[in-house]
Amino acid sequence: MSQSPAPTERSPFGQALHQGLSELASSKRMSAQQLEVIYALAYAHVAQHQYAQALPLFAFLSQYGATRKHYLSGLALCLQMVGRYDEAICIYSLIGTLYPDTPDAALRVAECQLAQADTESARAELVRVLELAGTSGRHGQARARAQALLNLTAREAGA
């Protein structure tokens, strides 16, 4: 289930951050199995669009599994869905630093920026998503969504 890129894919800062977070005492207090039971509950709340209920669970998970991408992604999504965009952007940026191999976090940053009516920053982030997605089919959905949002913001700017 690990979605971690090889350490060489991270920037030196990203690698040092990942290692430091991995070595936190809190990351050893609960077993992976215990955390996954809590994750199942948090995921069930998200599946039912109960983001406010899932938020404290993902916050807890992110403290005890600070380098687990799915915990951080859940936390960021909940923050985004309850309208706490600045905090969501911070967590999505952390994900992008720890896991630079996918454009999904950058796409979510752009969505938060659009929700805050920061179109200029969102457009710059969407261009970055397109660069990160490349031309391979691996990130086709992210590339298509970024392009659609970029086109939409261009039309709105011209209107």
Report on this structure.
There is one protein chain. The protein has 8 helices and no strands. The relative contact order is 0.10. The chain is 72% helix and 0% strand.
Write the layout of secondary structure elements.
Layout (H helix, E strand, L loop, with lengths): L11 H11 L9 H16 L3 H14 L4 H13 L3 H14 L5 H12 L3 H15 L6 H19 L1
Strand content: under 5%
Bulk shape: globular
Beta strands, count? 0
Give the count of helical stretches. 8
Quaternary state of this entry equals single chain
Average pLDDT, to the nearest integer?
91
Query: What is the CA-CA span between the terminal residues?
Result: 45 Å
Radius of gyration: 16 Å
Sheet with the most strands, sense and barrel status: none
- The assigned structural class equals mainly alpha
Helix content: over 70%
Low-confidence spans: 1-8
N-to-C SSE string, H for helix and E for strand: HHHHHHHH
Observed structural traits:
single chain; 159 residues; mainly alpha; 8 helices; 72% helix; 0% strand; globular; disordered N terminus
Describe the structure concisely for a colleague.
The protein has 159 residues and is mostly helical.
